[in-house]
Amino acid sequence: MRVMPRALDRYVFGEWFKIFLTTAFGFPLLVIVIDLTDNLEKYLARHLSREAIALSYLYWLPESMFMVLPAAVLFATVFSIGSFTRYSEVTAAKASGISFYRLIAPIVAGSVLAGMLGLVISEISPITTAKRNDILEENKDARGTERFNFVYSAENGRVYKAGSLSVPNQQMGSFQIERKGNGPDYPTLVISASMATYKPGNSWTLHKGTVHVVPTDGPDFAVSFDSLRDKGMKEQPADLLATPRSPHEMGYRDLGRFIRALERSGGDANELKVERALKIAIPVTCIIIALFGAPLATSTQRGGAAYGIGVSLGVTIVFLMMIQLTKAIGGKGLMPPDLAAWLPNIVFAIVGGFLLSRART
Questions:
Q1: Segment 189-205 mean pLDDT
Q2: Rounded to 10 degrees, what is the CA torsion of 37, 43, 49, 51?
Q3: What pairs with residue 191 in β-bridges?
Q4: Angle between the N-to-C axes of helices 50-86 and 105-136, in degrees from 0 to 180, rounded to the nearest 10
Q5: Pairing of strands 146-153, 203-214
């Protein structure tokens, strides 16, 4: 009896994985074909080479796969279990003393792996999406690369003032940092520099300036410097632009840092909070959708493959509509952003739990 479940696990997982892999790559490729048909003329008008266009779609693959992963898990679950049901393999397993819950264990394990893959993709896709936008020159008109005479509210009570910012050159001119103190042990600081340069790794260096220390009681004093490395300045040059990067170009941590900066500046960050929460909620959906689809799939024997396609497409459309609806509600502040991102999962988890409780084991 030990060998049989292991062989059965390999068989169930193998059938599920083949459908999952086909769907996870097939849907994005279909989207790419549709997008290419709609935008090819626009890309050629920008004098982009065929190689550049092809590379841009390769970079777009992670972003397009991210939202498709739950649908791929659902299709794989419905079709694999539906096939087992139609050919009486579920009945045979039950007759051998293997419950329905034990039978779908490899599918649940596969959905967990799909969720982990989604977490990895959510951190990779902002990098590849930014590269794609650079290739297609999508940001050329939408966002500039320079800013002049601005003030930026940073963390730990810091305020940055700059005469100029150049993202390509990774530097600022006529730069000043103000940090208010709150007592003798934490005095007010004002750091002025003629220039600040940035190196990858969140490292800023201030050049030819002065540090003014202003204590709450007693005289203030100043110290001049030729160069000063500021480890407390975590912002990248692009973070200081008037127009921020798209949420699709920012990972979970980058979004969190920008949300905090936006809130300190008095901006509305609800929409970005929903986007940040979705980077975790979407991968978790893979697990929930498998538990939802497994008992639902036992009824696909009524109409065969056509019924399975209809069920999978219908559930996928409902899920995507719920995501867009709750995203809009959370973005407008009508619902807490985290709840808005997780609400579709909550609904599908409740329905999935009900269906599992009624499944014949």
A1: 88
A2: -50
A3: 177, 211
A4: 160
A5: unpaired
CB–CB of 195/173 below 8 Å?
Answer: yes
3-state secondary structure of 58: helix
Write the DSSP symbol of residue 234. Answer: -
How far apart are alpha carbons 82 and 105 in whole angstroms? Answer: 16
Helices (H), the chain: 3-45, 50-86, 89-95, 100-103, 105-136, 139-142, 252-264, 270-297, 304-331, 337-358
- How confident is the model at residue 218, as a pLDDT? 72
Question: pLDDT at residue 148 above 70?
Answer: yes
Convert the pLDDT of each residue in 55-85 to its tens digit.
999 999 998 899 889 989 988 998 888 888 8
- Locate 38 and state its tokens: 């709609």
Helix, strand or coil, per DSSP, at residue 124: helix
Class of residue 278 by CB neighbours under 10 A (exposed 0-12, middle 13-18, buried 19+): buried
